[in-house]
Amino acid sequence: MSKILVICFSSINNVAMAIPVIHSLATQYAQHQIMVLSIDTFSPLFENVPDNVIFRGADFRGEHAGLMGLGWLYNDLKEEKFDAVAAFQPTFRSRFLCWRFRLAGIKAAHIKQNRRELQKLIRRKHKIYTEQDSFFQRCAHTLSQIGYPIRLSFLSLFGKNKGNISSLAPLTGEKNQETWIGIAPFATHVGKIYPLSKQEQILKHLSARDHTKIFLFGGGKKEIKVLEEWAQHFPNVISTAGKLTINMELALMSNMDVMLVMDAANMHLASLVNIPVVSIWGATHPCAGFAGWNQSAANTIQIDLPCRPCSLSGEKHCYRKDYACLQGITPEMVIEQHKQSHQLNETNKSHILFRFLLVVFAFASTLAILIFHIRSSFYPLYYCIRYRRKIIRNNLSNSFPEKDLKEIVQIEKQFYSFFCDYI
């Protein structure tokens, strides 16, 4: 058994994006033990991973702060006797730990970021739009560098099922035949947040639909205040902000029919539970390689502008001062894309049901043919039931005294075959 260390320092966005890669690694190398080293507050994200994955938290505001703290962290880690180390973010801390492990003779690699191409993508003038490898592909390449190539095969944190939300019934109610829509309207940076006034128009339209319930996701005092006001103002709207743990949120997200999000953490969290995610992109762009896991490009809402993208994470202020990349997206565009995504999801469900029924009918028809052949065959009647066999044999022997036993048995079987076909 080998021991592999995977380092995932950085924001919750990147840690959430690393989960499909770690999950694929753990399932395809089930004989090995994988330790994930990340910020200790992210431990809940790793509660639904395979059994051969263990989480190790790092406290960079306390015990592991500064260069000396990193040295202590390395001293603790080297006692685990790892066979290989992979870092999924090119941060100083990750590079430092990889360097120390290399000095100790252990295979170590950190993710490569094509900074030159990314700078060409986000510079103000003469942009060059080239589709970058996704974060997931680059993580998989990093694993191959340390001798563990993988096929990205992750489906969901809950497998083929949905998360258990029975404990949330007082908040959510029963779903029954309702359409559940999740909306996460906020992001860390202004360049990623669709104008709240336009989001209110979308919320007003969606909440007026019959048999529809909307759940608002977010955190932080300002966000909670806005979401609670929306929940009180619009019908069939429930705010979950500040009421759920991250695992409860993931379980609830898995029961959504569709999520509407910004290019932010909730986009990546929703992508981990195998549901359609409609995402709005402003200052950033999915071609930089940071789109949600296994999400359709058709579900990204954006407009083409010569200034887009202006940054990789949306932290830069708009030099035009008007955030045209977000203001140019109309509520009607979002509503229409949501409608198409929901219809596509329903179509996929119908296709799954159709394929299931097709298998059932094929099995039933095969079984019917098998039963017909068994019924038309004389073998059960002749060998098992032995219906009037003695009488028939005596009658045949009396009718054909010149024939021997072998010929009588042959005539006997021919009679049973004709008799079974007849009935």
Number of helices: 15
Q: Helix and strand succession?
A: EHEEHEHEHHHEHEHEHEHEEHHHHH
Shape: extended
Terminal Cα span: 65 Å
Q: Assess the beta-strand content as a share of residues.
A: 5-15%
Low-confidence stretches: none
Can you summarize this structure?
The protein is α/β, with parallel strands linked by helices. It contains 15 helices and 11 strands.
Please describe the topology of this protein.
Layout: E1 3-8, H1 12-28, E2 33-39, E3 53-58, H2 66-78, E4 84-87, H3 92-103, E5 107-110, H4 115-122, H5 135-145, H6 169-172, E6 179-184, H7 196-207, E7 212-216, H8 221-233, E8 237-239, H9 246-253, E9 258-262, H10 265-271, E10 277-280, E11 300-301, H11 324-327, H12 331-376, H13 379-385, H14 389-399, H15 405-422
Parallel strand pairs: 1-2, 1-4, 2-3, 4-5, 6-7, 6-9, 7-8, 9-10, 10-11
Helix pairs in contact: 1-5, 1-10, 2-3, 7-12, 14-15
Give an account of the 3D structure.
This protein is of the alpha/beta class. Helices cover 45% and strands 12% of the residues. The chain has a six-stranded parallel β-sheet, with helices on both faces. The protein has a five-stranded parallel β-sheet with strand order 3-2-1-4-5, with helices on both faces. The termini are far apart.
